[in-house]
Automatic annotation (TrEMBL):
GO MF annotations, alphabetized: dihydrolipoyllysine-residue acetyltransferase activity
This protein's name: Acetyltransferase component of pyruvate dehydrogenase complex
Span of domain Lipoyl-binding: 2-77, 128-203
Keywords: Acyltransferase, Lipoyl, Pyruvate, Transferase
Organism: Salinimicrobium profundisediminis
Biased segments, Acidic residues type: 113-123
PANTHER family in the record: DIHYDROLIPOAMIDE ACETYL/SUCCINYL-TRANSFERASE-RELATED, DIHYDROLIPOYLLYSINE-RESIDUE ACETYLTRANSFERASE COMPONENT OF PYRUVATE DEHYDROGENASE COMPLEX, MITOCHONDRIAL-RELATED
Subunit structure, interactors included: Forms a 24-polypeptide structural core with octahedral symmetry.
Biased composition range(s): Low complexity: 214-225
Similarity comment text for this entry: Belongs to the 2-oxoacid dehydrogenase family.
Domain Peripheral subunit-binding (PSBD) intervals: 254-291
SUPFAM superfamilies linked: CoA-dependent acyltransferases (SSF52777), Peripheral subunit-binding domain of 2-oxo acid dehydrogenase complex (SSF47005), Single hybrid motif (SSF51230)
EC number: 2.3.1.12
Length: 550
């Protein structure tokens, strides 16, 4: 009997996975325990093995595709077995659909016959144009008509301002691209409507547009040949109406009334100006940029340009940026999606506040040097900070806590999360019972887990259960920064670089080395005084490493 294999949940936070590679192909024999595929989760790329024996009859997710947990991944069964019933009813669906389509055909035919007159009535008459709510900004989804400059029955010329429209960013003037009479206003002043809703209808005076209003401004597909011919003739008609708004190749130029006036005054040929507005519409700033670039002076007659040069002989030519705007789209990995989701939730839900303290590193540097003189021993400053943080958590358990809503869970164990940067983002392997480890044990385990993280070999259990997190950017020269709390922890420590600077010792200014530590706290569980006391204890441990042995 065939067995359905679904996209597994390979980590506690996994919601969807990517099939990085299939190690078995359709038709291959499968043994229990064979690796079927490599699956990329939000934390690592992991091998997924089969729990069944048989033949791989179906692959539901191809290499590189993303799918939610529990989506059909594969089907394993006996060779030649019929699996159509397991494919979510896909085999039966077409038959039912075709049957229903056959049954509905006569009705559809009669409907089309009975509504033939309506279709004709829904066509947009000659010369009538439907004006829709424009998208006046890249993020605009709906707009509000602040005021109508033209009223129903008014004559409208191409370029006239129809209305003022309030977008999500500003209130902007919206001009007409058509000439005629304003026959219908679809959105009244103060009303809000989505982009592409019918804003107005413009056409010959006295035209009946009731059928267009009823159909929502959509014309029926039964367009006649004469209508197509009229559409083809429109650019020529536009050319005859206004040479100023037409390029040399016959294509139409969109420009605001103010831009047209400025271009006319300065003698600028609009066909030479690149528009930055909607539909490459030329606006005021485009004329100004063109003017300051020096091209306007060439377009103007020499007699008109000469007085301007005499009046402003010392004018410095303004810088005009040149180049092409471009973007590269990179598909977000599962890890990047999860990082974005978790950190956004943490920042939104947990009221963060930050405490910073400066630590004298003279003794820590001397002690580390002595420790590293022991053969086969290597301890980093990060290892010292992790050990000191674990020891400080013993004395301040409220920092080692979690907010659950009704209760605050104070952990009796100390599991240190260590933030590790990888190519696709950030992972946090966990040192279990870090307070019980020696410095050399901490150093060895951090290096091992960091290596696994960079090679995508971390197992889910190696990234679970942290009660406190340390993030260190000191190796990149960052002297001070703040981090977002790694939920469900109540705090995260940000470690900066060791900086050589003047310090005061025994009343004398001498050269010293200091390091800044910033503690981000969740105010729901850690009060300011509690966080300050924790940092005070941490500072004592780092400045006097021998005290960690007491």
């Amino acid at each position: 009997m065939a067995e359905v294999i679904k996209m597994p949940r390979l980590s506690d936070t996994m919601e969807e996975g990517v099939v990085a590679k299939w190690l078995k192909q359709k038709g291959d024999k499968i043994e229990e325990g064979d690796i079927l595929a490599e699956i990329e989760t939000d934390k690592a790329t992991m091998e997924f093995e089969s729990f069944y024996e048989g033949t791989l009859l179906h692959i539901g997710i191809e290499e590189g595709e993303t799918a939610p947990v529990d989506t059909l991944l594969a089907i394993v069964g006996e060779e030649g077995e019929d699996i159509s019933s397991l494919l979510d009813g896909k085999a039966d669906a077409p038959k039912e659909d075709s049957k229903s389509e056959t049954e509905e055909k006569p009705e559809a035919s009669s409907d089309s016959d009975s509504s033939e007159d309506d279709a004709e009535g829904g066509e947009i008459p000659e010369g009538v144009e439907v004006v829709r709510m424009p998208r006046l900004s890249d993020t605009m989804e709906e707009g509000t008509v602040a005021s109508w400059i033209k009223k129903e029955g008014d004559e409208v010329e191409e370029g006239d301002i129809l209305a003022e429209i309030e977008t999500d960013k500003a209130t902007m003037e919206f001009e007409s691209f058509y000439s005629g009479t304003l026959l219908y206003v679809g959105i009244q002043e103060g009303e809000t409507a989505p982009v592409d809703a019918v804003l107005a209808i413009i056409g010959p005076k006295g035209t009946d547009v009731s059928s267009i209003v009823k159909s929502g401004g959509a014309s029926k597909p039964a367009a006649s040949k004469s209508t197509e011919e009229k559409k083809e003739e429109k650019p020529e008609a536009s050319k005859e109406t206004s040479q100023e708004a037409t390029a040399s190749d016959g294509s139409r130029i969109f420009a605001s009334p103010l831009a047209k006036k400025m271009a006319d005054d300065l003698g600028i040929d609009l066909s030479q100006v690149k528009g930055s507005g909607e539909n490459n519409r030329i606006v005021k700033k485009d004329i100004e940029n063109y003017k300051t670039s020096g091209k306007a002076a060439e377009a103007k007659p020499a007699a008109a340009a000469q007085p301007l040069q005499q009046a402003q002989p010392s004018q410095v030519q303004a810088y005009t940026p040149a180049g092409e705007e471009s973007f590269e789209e990179v598909k977000n990995s599962q890890m990047r999606k999860t990082i974005a989701k978790r950190l956004a939730e943490s920042k939104y839900n947990a009221p963060h506040y930050y405490l910073t303290i400066e630590v004298d590193m003279a003794s820590a540097m001397a002690n580390r040097k002595q420790i590293n003189e022991i053969p086969d021993v290597k301890v980093s400053f990060n290892d010292l900070v992790i050990k000191a943080s674990a020891m400080a958590l013993r004395k301040h358990p409220k920092v080692n806590s979690q907010w659950t809503g009704d209760t605050t869970k104070i952990a009796k164990h100390i599991h240190m999360g260590v933030a590790v940067a990888v190519e696709e983002g950030l992972v946090v392997p966990v040192l279990k019972y870090a307070d019980q480890m020696s410095l050399t044990q901490i150093g060895g385990q951090v290096r091992e887990l960091a290596g696994k993280a960079r090679n995508k070999k971390l197992q889910p259990q190696e990234m679970e259960g942290s009660t406190f997190t340390v993030s260190n950017l000191g190796m990149f020269g960052i002297t001070e920064f703040t981090s977002i709390i790694n939920q469900p922890n109540s705090a995260i420590l940000s470690v900066g670089a060791i900086v050589e600077k003047p310090v005061v010792r025994n009343g004398q200014i001498v050269v010293g080395n200091t390091m800044k530590l910033t503690l981000a706290c969740d105010h729901r569980t850690v009060d300011g005084a509690t966080g300050a006391q924790f940092l005070e204890t941490l500072k004592t441990y780092i400045e006097n490493p021998v005290t960690m042995l007491a």
